[in-house]
């Protein structure tokens, strides 16, 4: 698979995870019962997370309107830092996987705790 196709796959995985994380956060906030003290801290954390994902969505939409990609610039930076093509590929895969895990895992954990 060529680098361009790999880059697009990573970008789309990241964007899809952003949308899923944002929707999970909104769903969690909408269905939360706000009557216990422990619930307040969970709601606060979920609010911060959801706000950050909404901000990320605005940046994604801004990039789409402008026709540029901050993610593409980040991927090029990761590849440049890696030193070799195979190491760059592994680093990009690891960063993408961790990003997806964070964006989907945090609201899931907060919603089910």
Could you name the key traits of this structure?
4 helices, 113 residues, elongated, mainly alpha
What does this structure look like?
It is a single chain. The protein starts with a helix and ends with a helix. The chain has helices at residues 3-30, 37-66, 70-82, 85-111. The chain is mainly alpha-helical and 113 residues long. Helix 1 runs antiparallel to helix 2 and helix 3 packs across helix 4 (85-111). The longest helix has 30 residues, at 37-66. It has 4 helices and no strands.
- Element order: H for helix, E for strand: HHHH
Number of helices: 4
User: Can you tell me the overall shape?
Assistant: elongated
Task: Indicate the proportion of strand residues.
Answer: under 5%
Please count the beta strands (DSSP E, at least 2 residues each): 0
* Range of helix content: over 70%
What is the typical, i.e. mean, pLDDT? 90
Separation, N- and C-terminal Cα atoms: 40 Å
The low-pLDDT segments are: none
Radius of gyration: 17 Å
Largest sheet: none
Structural class: mainly alpha
